[in-house]
Amino acid sequence: MGSKDGNKASLYQKLQHLRSATNSTAVKVETLEKGFLINVFWERNCQGLLVSILEAFEDLGLEVLDARVSCSDTFHLEAVSDQNEGQTSDSIDAQVVKQAVLQAIRIWSDDQQDDHDDDH
Questions:
Q1: Which of 81, 20, 76 is nearest to 46 (CA)?
Q2: Which among 5, 31, 50, 100 has the fewest CB atoms less than 10 Å away?
Q3: C-alpha distances in angstroms, 90 versus 81, 86, 96?
Q4: Do residues 35 and 82 make contact, with C-beta atoms less than 8 angstroms apart?
Q5: Which CATH class is domain 23-119?
């Protein structure tokens, strides 16, 4: 029985390692007539991530017109944004939006890691 329990523990440990290694973020931004369709997916629930992403939109001068968010087991955001008055359509492109979202995720993730390190 002991080796069976050991195998279960080893398998569980490998599974946890695989899960952490595959936590990936997908960010897709499509250009619309006057704004963007933004999709963000992360394979785990991320408390507080939505706020960080919305702050990035605000920093870019984007106004969210419509959004769907799921934060149960995974994080998924689908948002339609418009550029605020005064923004020229050439000033921001899809790549700029994507990089801003990815940077917001990196900063949020680093903050979460720092908080986790402080707990130990």
A1: 76
A2: 5
A3: 15, 12, 11
A4: yes
A5: alpha beta
